[in-house]
Amino acid sequence: MSGGRQLALIALFTIAVACVPLVSRSGALLNFVMMALYATLLAQAWNILGGFGGQFSFGHALFFGTGAYVQAIAQLQGGINAWAALPLAIAGAAVVGVFVGALSFRYGLKGSYFALVTLAFAEVFRIVALSVPFTGGGVGLMVPLREAASNFQFGSRAGYLWVMLGFVLAALLVTWWLRHGRFGAWLQAVRDNEDAARAVGVNPFRVKLGAIALSAAFMGAAGAFYVQVFQYIDPGIAYGPSTSVEALVAAIVGGMGTLWGPVLGAVVLHLLADLTRNLFGELPGINMVIYGVVLVLIVIFLPRGIAGLGQSVRQLWAGKGGRHG
Description:
There is one protein chain. The protein has 325 residues and is an all-alpha fold. The chain has 15 helices and two strands. It has a two-stranded antiparallel sheet with strand order 1-2. The chain is globular and about 55 Å long.
């Protein structure tokens, strides 16, 4: 699909989702759309580094938690308005991303080694957050309710939905740019063959560092958003594995390295999570079990994810035709 058509689809998607609060006042529907967009942002953030860059991270909660804590601490201890704290949260997550990337990529860590390093950093940050007083330790931090749009606290889910839609739109545009821009071509070249990319003048270290900064920035935005919606953060929520798992599974299920794959994956997994809660109640960890089963099935039967379903079916059909011939 051409770049122009993809931009048109992004515009149509944005308009359609933005109109949801205008045509429905259902709190359940608005909450579902808001949380599906939230899951989409997590998946798109992971997709930038994992899908386009080929750098699989098991600890993306590291950047989510950093953004969440910067957002909360800036308000509670710095007296900063929530909207002014938002860019600080995004920048803080990006700085941590650059720090982790500089250490990892400088020494050539990739594949399972890079995945384990990100997981280790997330655990280190969780332990630190449990130990230092300005994060509230194990008790966590609670942002007081001061309901006003100027304070990033809305009276209904509609306001949060539109804010999250803005984040997702930004992520979609960045993903579109990666698919069609020079930096994206460099990043995909590094993913496919780092030595060949270096031979044609691409600097793999700088390219991967840029990718992890972008990815971390969007995760930081998701963390800041979480704090404003739920008004609470603690080390387990901030740096625990559930956020990392949600981000990578949605991207893989939907289709890594694609524009719409993370959107499809996030919606499908969020639907499954809601259905699971309705059928089985609040069984602890049931959503992680569902994610695991879906991931295994997708990897076996749809290696390109939901976004690659058409291509997978065509190849399967062609293979059957060849055998019959």
